Amino acid sequence: xxxxxxxxxxxxxxxxxxxxxxxxxxxxxxxxxxxxxxxxxxxxxxxxxxxxxxxxxxxxxxxxxxxxxxxxxxxxxxxxxxxxxxxxxxxxxxxxxxxxxxxxxxxxxxxxxxxxxxxxxxxxxxxxxxxxxxxxxxxxxxxxxxxxxxxxxxxxxxxxxxxxxxxxxxxxxxxxxxxxxxxxxxxxxxxxxxxxxxxxxxxxxxxxxxxxxxxxxxxxxxxxxxxxxxxxxxxxxxxxxxxxxxxxxxxxxxxxxxxxxxxxxxxxxxxxxxxxxxxxxxxxxxxxxxxxx
Length: 293
Ligand SMILES: [Zn+2]
Hints:
The chain is of the alpha/beta class. The protein has a single domain, classed as Alpha-Beta Barrel (TIM Barrel), CATH 3.20.20.370. 38% of the residues lie in helices and 15% in strands. It has a five-stranded mixed sheet. Strands 3-2-1-10 form a four-stranded parallel sheet. Strand 1 (4-11), helix 1 and strand 2 form a beta-alpha-beta unit. The longest helix has 24 residues, at 27-50. The protein is globular. The two termini are 27 Å apart. Zinc ion binds next to loops. Zinc ion (ZN) binds next to loops.
């Protein structure tokens, strides 16, 4: 099996984050966050181009309506455009029919804007979990080739702690889909979620690097799937009125992320998730199967 790393970016305006659900955000602040989302995403495109790296962008479907040129430019630059749902609601908020409609709107809008098929999915807040395992069937029905939403960790908001840490076939009720789980680092008997968040912004970067090296050394090798958000690269953005812990978690380290991403792009090679998924399938490697429902 192949060793590969993926830099993925979940493209959403800052006020869509899970910690802000239930907050009333004034329209002018939403407009500011939308403008900042575009500026930061374009800076990321420049940084990736300078490093000659290709990445995967899971984009909120509504952004294909509000910023079609941005989505087109991501695709033209050679990156993969995947879906990050229509409007960033967690899978828990849907029944299968509602989720199907959400996926179809998002896929259609993104394909029109990108001018390319959309075959990869990342659920908001990694919300494909045991209780939402039916989502696997819907993703496969809607023509997605792979998913990257099952985080094999124990966490207060998400996670399937006993899911495989490398690529696997996620099995739903009747169908299955190739899963590329976000990177974990095994230490002290725990799967640490080193793929992004605090492990990118707060802790020393060597933990994320150690995770990437551990994944490459594993037999068979795992995929070094990392995730980032444009708002994590925007130290001057206005802060949302979050509670203390959520505020700290959200904004810690946002001033050092551009340099850190630069160091990662220098030290490791990254590929698009869709290419990794297709190579895995073409290799004929027997992947573990993991039943969610
Ligand atoms: Zn998101």
